[in-house]
What we know:
Number of strands: 13
Bound molecules: oxa(dethia)-CoA
Helix content: 25-40%
Oligomer: single chain
CATH topology of the largest domain: Peroxisomal Thiolase, Chain A, domain 1
Order of helices and strands: EEHEHEHEHEHEEEHEHEHHHEE
CATH architecture of the largest domain: 3-Layer(aba) Sandwich
Strand order of the largest sheet: 1-7-6-4-5
Number of helices: 10
Number of domains: 2
Largest sheet: 5 strands, mixed
Distance between the termini: 20 Å
Strand content: 15-25%
Amino acid sequence: MKRPIAYVAGTGRGVPKRVMTNHDFAALGLETSHEWIVERTGIVERHIASDTETTCYMAADAARHAMARANVAPGEIDAIILSTATADRLLPATAVDLQAELGARRAAAFDISAACTGWIYGMTVAEGLMHTGVAETVLVVGSEKMSAIVDWKDRSTCVLFGDGAGAAVLKRSKPHAREGILSAYMRSDGTLAELLWRPSGGAKIPFSETVLGDRSSYVRMAGREVFKHAVRSMSDACDRALDGAKLRGDDIDILIPHQANVRIIEATAKHANIPMNKVYVNVDRYGNTSSASIPIALDEAVETGRVKEGTTALMVAFGAGFTWGSMIVRF
Ligand code: UT7
């Protein structure tokens, strides 16, 4: 397969208005502190969606910005890929709500469930659709309302997450173009699923009085274990993406990692031999927005001029599953 097949024509983000700071947890009666959260994670504040700011609403906001930047009308979109761990309802996919909301009449639409790695998975699937000729223009969105699935009584998880959406419009590359996806890598290990999961509330253990009582439909995480795997897998994924594009750490202009914890980001950058001044960090302002984190960061980097024509970006993610993956894109 000769790359590039697909390039990023536009990016966008959709972020809830309300900001919740670390200090606001005191009002919930949680035994935590701003100092603990900043020291262990780098997070200072996160956005929290209102009832009307649904996963689809945030996705549409991000998508409209990305489509405007790409100068793409709804009718030109061949496929909508929405990555989310927080679907607005279980059937049908939230992607079809987005399709209807945007009026993208010609588009196929489906959700991807790969947790924090979902947007990288989605971008890779989109590239595949272009390779086979099924699609020419694909909207790839990560939208997450994590506040709806975290346990607000569990200080070890609820302080970590935030809400938001990010999007990119991918278009088929012109022959001999230099910009576009240069390499992509995806992996998973389901033997470790129970280290970061929602034990109940699906078809296997449906909602019941018991589930509501034991709070087992909320996110549970073995933080320290997840941390170790995240560093190892994201480091490995950086190597694989660099190998795939025949590049070295020095060739990367900007690293845009999944934003879960600044310590994980620092360890990953060190492994990839990329100095922190070339790493995009916004975990302090958003917390972990799961699969929305990379496209939100990418859109901010575009807006502030850190990603521009000619920039080579390495994106790398890790999340529940476990899933992990990476991608190098030249803009
Ligand atoms: O996006 C998917 C990937 N997710 C991640 O990458 C998250 C990965 N994990 C992490 O980022 C970190 O493991 C955490 C931030 C979740 C935790 O940091 P840690 O340095 O690994 O802390 P720990 O879990 O080892 O907990 C240390 C202590 C514990 O107390 P004891 O047992 O030492 O007495 C916790 O009970 O900190 C306590 N603790 C808290 N204290 C104040 C846990 N949460 C809090 C809190 N405030 N919010």
